[in-house]
Amino acid sequence: MAAEEKRARGFLRSKISHLSAGELILSQVESIVWWLVGGLPALPGFAFRWAALKLMAKRVNGFCWVQPGVTFVQTDRLEIGRHFGCNTGTYINAIGGITMGDYVLLGSNVTISSGMHPIEGSSPPIFSRPTIPTPIRIEDDVWIAAGAVILPGVTLRKGTVVGANSVVTKDTDEFSIYAGAPARKIGSRLRDSQSQGPTSASRSTSE
Ligand SMILES: CC(C)(COP(=O)(O)OP(=O)(O)OC[C@H]1O[C@@H](n2cnc3c(N)ncnc32)[C@H](O)[C@@H]1OP(=O)(O)O)[C@@H](O)C(=O)NCCC(=O)NCCS
Predict the structure, then answer these.
(1) Which residues of the chain are modeled with pLDDT < 50?
(2) Residues 6, 13, 15, 117: which is the catalytic one?
(3) CA 151, 152, 154 angle in degrees (round to 5)?
(4) What is the full DSSP assignment across 139-187?
(5) Active site residue 83
(6) Ligand 1 atom closest to Cα of 162?
(7) pTM score, two decimals?
């Protein structure tokens, strides 16, 4: 029983050990704010969620189109550029810091979590180990389609497309299309190396 209690305490510690007292209070306020505005329908809902992000995020450069039912954790470590769109069911945990550029679009049920659980060794249980904050960077004009998972430490370079249900484990190339679990490069958005903007995808089987 004593060991059980120790593990339970370890679990609680692992959830808050990375936070100062001020940050802990902020995280509680954050939960309540998202509970209040997270599910609000229609245009007022979008406006309130944008206001909540403006209030709590580290940086927000423009309007954010956040559908109902998106979960934000540790919003104070989240940076968002201009024209951010996010669909329902998506989970964004900025414990390790998440930086997003302009024109980032997230589909439904995407997971972007910037914390790692250390897995080496058999003891103590992973359950009671502290989370390791591990930053994620998402550059301009990135689309992450429905159900994708972005692993901690990954950089999605400018113009990346991530296909539905993909698991991105490594940094991506600019204007490239990735799909699968683990995600592999399946194409490029650029017609040729001179092209500056997005075009219809051209195929690549090199990776
Ligand atoms: C990633 C995506 C944009 C690529 O589209 P595309 O460039 O037209 O690619 P294609 O359909 O020509 O597929 C090319 C190859 O990649 C594979 N592929 C495409 N998307 C994939 C995915 N999400 N997971 C695994 N493989 C995928 C295809 O099976 C195909 O393989 P093959 O060459 O062996 O037949 C698209 O497949 C996708 O996932 N769209 C997301 C749709 C979505 O979630 N919409 C909801 C709104 S957010």
Answers:
(1) 194, 197-200, 203-207
(2) 117
(3) 75
(4) -SS-EE-TT-EE-TT-EE-TT-EE-TT-EE-S---TTEEEETTTTEEEE
(5) no
(6) 1
(7) 0.88
